[in-house]
Amino acid sequence: MEQLLQQIEQYRQEIAAIVPDGAEALEAYRIRFLGTKGIVKNLFTEMKNVPADRKKEFGQVLNDFKLLAESRYEGWKSQLTTGDAETASTIDLSLPGDPLPLGTHHPITLVRDRIVHIFGRLGFSVAEGPEIEDDWHNFTALNLPENHPARDMQDTFYIHQHPDWLLRTHTSSVQARVMESQRPPIRIICPGRVYRNETISARAHCFFHQTEGLYIDENVSFADLKQTLYFFVQEMFGKDVKVRFRPSYFPFTEPSAEMDINCRICGGSGCSVCKHTGWVEILGSGMVHPKMLDNFGIDSNKYTGFAFGMGIERICQLKYRINDLRLYSQNDVRFLRQFTGAV
Ligand code: PHE
């Protein structure tokens, strides 16, 4: 009994000496003194060993000790939570959050999407094809046989291990694939990346982007071609845009024409972009050569069609006044961040 009382006294001193610490120390304290196998519980089980005449006295001491251990626990706990509340009140919830930098669409993507949208309204759907092409789809099927001089204009990169493979020079290869697998009426545009073997400069790059289009049906005429492309540039650049068609040559179209619009940079007064002519070429076009239709088993007596192809970088240049092709692929965020809105 005396020993027990001594023990309790020691515990009291221990509790009195405690310097309250964090939540972990509090929990350790709780387990040690108040847990189901803790000191207080253990002391109560000692009750049975206490002589009957001193049970009352011991019970009193034990109860006091229990209350002390509990109140120390409660005091410590509330000190911890008010401490937390104090920390919480020092957090200023009105401060702005950490900035999360959001990307923007690349200008090429913006212009491409706009082109797709405009032609979409005219019923054109998007067709895609491989960037690594074979000679047939990129050249031969398009009336550009080997040694044809027009091939020189579109020198590209060849795959060493596979001489028949090359990086496509235009998305006309997609038109070839569509004519191969679909029957008229055909109304598609094919946006995509194309490659040419050019030295990189402000005006030339080894890759760029095109959107070509193809429309084949009965009774498609040159008037349809002109009106479709005129509608396109009006939607892209505004109703005040002026167009002019110049006769040209492409092996896969006959007759062929290049389309110019009045310079959007200088308004026609003359600048380096329009080479002081007031006009800028934006696309090549023409009526699909009957031989092409026959190449793909489409009856050229029944069907006619038109095709066109434009460089997206050029449209972008006129839309946003970007005069150096290298900017598109340098990934400088100061350049890219400027194009946030819809075209
Ligand atoms: N494929 C041609 C080029 O890349 C453009 C074009 C397409 C011309 C369709 C006429 C018809 O230069």
Helix content: 25-40%
**What is the end-to-end distance?**
92 Å
Q: Per CATH, which architecture of the largest domain?
A: 2-Layer Sandwich
Number of helices, counting only DSSP H or I runs of 4 residues or more: 11
Mean pLDDT: 90
**Which radius of gyration do the C-alpha atoms yield?**
41 Å
Uncertain segments of ≥5 residues (pLDDT<50)?
none
Q: SSE string, helix = H, strand = E? A: HHHHHEEHEEHEEHEEEHEHH
> What structural class should be given to the helix and strand makeup?
alpha+beta
The best one-word shape is rod-shaped
In CATH, the topology of the largest domain is named: BirA Bifunctional Protein, domain 2
Largest sheet: 7 strands, mixed
Q: In words, what does this structure look like?
A:
The mean pLDDT is about 90. The strands form 2 sheets. This protein has a 7-stranded mixed sheet with strand order 1-5-6-10-9-8-7, with helices on both faces. It has a 3-stranded antiparallel sheet with strand order 2-4-3. The chain folds into 2 domains: about 90 residues; about 230 residues, Bira Bifunctional Protein, Domain 2 (BirA Bifunctional Protein, domain 2, 2-Layer Sandwich). It is built from 11 helices and 10 strands. It is rod-shaped, with a radius of gyration of 41 Å. It has about 350 residues and is α+β, with helices and mostly antiparallel strands. Phenylalanine (PHE) binds next to strand 9 and strand 10.
